[in-house]
Amino acid sequence: MHCPFCRHDDSRVVDSRTSDDGASTRRRRQCQACGRRFTTVETASLSVVKRSGTTEPFRREKVLAGVRKACQGRPVSEDDLARLAHGVEETIRGRGAAEIDAHEIGLEVLPSLRQLDEVAYLRFASVYRGFASLADFEAEIAALRAEVQPDPTQGAT
Hints:
The chain has helices spanning 60-70, 78-94, 102-116, 118-128, 134-148, and strands at 11-19, 24-31, 37-43, 47-49, 55-57, 99-101. The protein is an alpha+beta fold and 157 residues long. Strands 1-2-3 form a three-stranded antiparallel beta sheet, with no helix packed on it. The radius of gyration is 23 Å and the shape is elongated.
């Protein structure tokens, strides 16, 4: 790490703290040559591989925008959306991979969105699971109903 004051390439870490809920590390350093202190922030880079094969840095705002579109007109608060996007980012970063497929990010959103709002979940799932017909929607709705309502053919024991 080069000192921003004298450009000397040796510094020692005086203090380290995690910030942004563990997504980055803030380090206070002291230059061994001039003795001045400076701060660095270290974050793990995460790249998203798009369908076209191009890569771009992961941005939580893009996840939030996609979920916001699915929830348009639904009784879902901005705080709920922010928590969902944060949780997805934590899960993805927790995998430890430097690159992730954009499609995997969409699939990671689904379970949280399903708990938040079923209609928004169906909207989002139709894109990321590639629903091609009405039968795909019907099958997904049947799966949602099966989880909510117990099977009447199975009696209580």
